[in-house]
Structures are given as C-alpha cells and as structure tokens.
Amino acid sequence: MNPLELECRWNFADADFDADDDLVTLGADLEPATIVGAYAQGVFPMGLGEGGGEPLGWWSPLERGVLRRGDFHVSRSLRRSSRTMEVSVDTAFDDVVAGCAEPSRDGAWITPAVASAYGALHRLGVAHSIEVRQDGELVGGLYGLALGGLFAGESKFHVATDASKVALWALSEIVFAEPGPRLIDVQWRTDHLASLGVTTMERPAYRDAVAHLVASPPIAGLVPGARVPLGNR
Which Gene Ontology biological process is one annotated for this entry (predicted)? Predict the structure, then answer.
C-alpha cells in the first residue's frame, strides 16, 4: 500500500513552524494516518508527560539530525564488534520496540499507546525494525517509518556493546544501496550520533527535502526476513 493514501484528519501543515521551538503543536491522536501525515510534514510525536505520557506533543526540531549517503562512520572497534553479530529486517518488531521502551532507560518515552500505534504501522508495512543478534539472542536494534526514500528512525537500543551502532550501520547499508533521493532522519543529533556521522539540517531545508523524499520510490531493501551483510568485516 501507499501510506500517503491514508486519510489524515489533522492538518499538520498548519503547525507553528515559525516557532523558535522544536515543539510545534499539541494534541491530535496516534492513528496510523495521523502519524504518516505528520511525518510527511516533517513532524513526529512524543509525549510531554512523565515517561512520554500526555499531553501528546508534535515535534519538528529547528536542527534536525540526519544521516546522509556516505556519511556513516565505521570505526575499527565497531567493525570488530560486528563480526560476532547477525542483522535482520522485520523479524522481531515488537521485541525491538519493547527493548527501546524499557522503563529503566534514561529518557524513556515510549508508552504502551505509542508501541501499539507503531505496531499497527508495522502491520501496514510502514514501520520496520532492524534486529541485531549475537549467538541467536536479540541484543540490539532500531525501528522507524519508511516513507518513499525517507527512513525516519524512532528509537534504538542495545544490551551488547555496539549493537545499536551495528543496527544503524545496517540501516544505512539498506537505505543507501540504491541511487536517488534517500535520507535517514534521527530526530536530534547527539554527541553519540555525531560520532557516527550524523549531521543536521535546518527545519525549512528538512521539510523541503521531505516533500521530495516521500514522493520517491520506496526503499527496496526493507524486506521482512532479509539478512543484512555488512561489507568488509
């Protein structure tokens, strides 16, 4: 299905994109059409309350963290760590979301409602996960939305050293395997993400890019059950 054909009853184009704030509006809901419609306008949901609870905020960072083609940095230590790991696509979506939602994590924000909403998007073929396993056990991963040539990352986790980095590396291999407009959105650039090659785009430039990205051909490598080889390990 084309996710952009989902009918959103909220008009995120009317959000306050002129605000000198990452938060651009409040309210709405977590229906699949709402989330897809928001992402098509460069907006994503995250609750303002404790643990990501209500009120529901919608965010469009002034400086958006992005990973561009050719920018992912593979250190020697990451390459060594990856040799004991196997990577797959969409084999344990709910388990990856649960790992990301672990309440003991600093800044935990994924509520049961958020997990349910992205689970619905996964069943529609819009949300995807990358799993990292070591000796058959899930030790890390990430999940997010794919709209055309855009992969909008929501969250990642690890219980083994470098496992979430391996997940992002694998995602970059998938997304940038094809020519054409492609971008990975990571919401905010942190020092950790910057060390992996993440840079920023100002809000207007990001929103302009998204308009082209979501109209681009979909990312072909996001095939359920696919194994992801990481080159030159």
Answer: protein catabolic process
